[in-house]
Amino acid sequence: MSDLDVIILGGYYGEGKGRNRVTGFLVGVSSGQNQSEDRTPTEYCSFAKIATGLSNDERKILDAKLGPHWRKKSEGNPEDFGIVWGKEKPDVWIPPNDSCVLLVRASELVRATDFSTRYTLRFPRILKIREDKPIYDCLTSTELEELAGTKVVQKLGKRHIELSDLEVVEKERKVRRKYVPNEIKPVESKSEILTGYEFCVLSGYEDWRKDDVEVAIREHGGSVVLVERNATLCILAGDDHPRVNICKQQNAKCDVVKLEWLRKIVNTGKFAAYTPFDLLHTCRKTRDRFLGEYDKYGDSYTVKITVDDVPKIMESVKESVIEFIYFCKTALNDANFRKTTLILHSSK
């Protein structure tokens, strides 16, 4: 026996939006003795608290049926209606003749001291409202004692466990395709322009995927690692990758370079060291080296600039001018800023 018919004896108010509504119930069983002439029990014992299992529609049905009959603790004496509480008492109570029966299910029947019965339910939930069942047909205390037997804990399973339930069924093993790193896949050597250089590839482009980038590196003599290390020249990133921001935030010890730099090397067949314009993140070692090779706008002290470099340098100059103007505006008030501007123009 796993499904029990119990009667609602009390209710509990909810929290938040449900603080003015009864959302939980204190259910009970009949004593099974001293029944009146119409078979209605004259005594009911508290048995368990339960709040889950009802749908919204079922809760509305219960609210309509029980709502007018809920009584506060100060309104009447439950004992006059044959209700026997234990230590646990509800927020409101209801006369049994105005109540209804619920069909409930639980995992276990356990000993308890908070209720007037010797037992209560563990993990109970409501299955449905028994509108077809009168209150005198609810579970009795005698039936409850028989159900519990002499055990401290009684499982409420529908059937006994059979040997077939304990048989171990061997699961079919999934054959996982063995991962073969690109590093050991054979590739056709095309050049040695990347010989001696090690790279870590984060992401590629739509037209040049990460796997293709790694193959291209090895085709031209380079090597690829999954995680950067001291021997790694740089980390390559094509499309946006979250790890680029992490490298910036944590001031990573390895440069993060735009993938376009490698693409130019592969397309031209000539190796060229990356410049400040090729970097997404610059480590401290490279930053210190660049101080002696480039000015603050990215213009090299030793290498002639190309036509492609001019827009990049001018963009850096533009950003510096904007930063300077912003600094002046914040450092000086508007009037002083205008005076300073006029003085600079007149000095020319």
Structural commentary:
The protein folds into 3 domains: 3-158, OB fold (Dihydrolipoamide Acetyltransferase, E2P), CATH 2.40.50; 198-293, BRCT domain (Rossmann fold, 3-Layer(aba) Sandwich), CATH 3.40.50; 307-337. Strands 1, 2, 3, 4, 5, 6, 7 and 10 form an 8-stranded mixed sheet that branches. A 5-stranded mixed sheet has the order 13-12-14-15-16. It starts with a strand and ends with a helix. The protein contains 9 helices and 16 strands. It has 348 residues and is an alpha+beta fold. A hairpin with a 7-residue loop joins strand 8 and strand 9 (119-122). The chain is rod-shaped, with a radius of gyration of 40 Å.
Spell out the blueprint of helices and strands:
Layout: E1 3-13, E2 22-30, E3 44-50, H1 56-66, E4 71-72, E5 83-84, E6 92-93, E7 101-105, E8 108-111, E9 119-122, E10 125-130, H2 141-148, E11 153-155, H3 163-166, E12 198-201, H4 210-219, E13 223-224, E14 234-237, H5 242-249, E15 256-258, H6 259-268, E16 279-281, H7 284-291, H8 309-331, H9 334-347
Parallel strand pairs: 3-5, 12-13, 12-14, 14-15
Antiparallel strand pairs: 1-2, 1-6, 1-7, 2-3, 4-6, 7-10, 8-9, 8-11, 15-16
Which architecture of the largest domain per CATH? Answer: Beta Barrel
CATH topology of the largest domain: OB fold (Dihydrolipoamide Acetyltransferase, E2P)
Instruction: Tell me the radius of gyration.
Output: 40 Å
Largest sheet: 8 strands, mixed
Classified by CATH, the class of the largest domain is: Mainly Beta
Approximately what portion of the residues adopt beta-strand conformation? 15-25%
GO molecular function: ATP binding; DNA binding; DNA ligase (ATP) activity
Pfam families: DNA_ligase_A_C, DNA_ligase_IV
InterPro entries: BRCT_dom, BRCT_dom_sf, DNA_ligase_ATP-dep_C, DNA_ligase_IV_dom, LIG4, NA-bd_OB-fold
Protein name: BRCT domain-containing protein
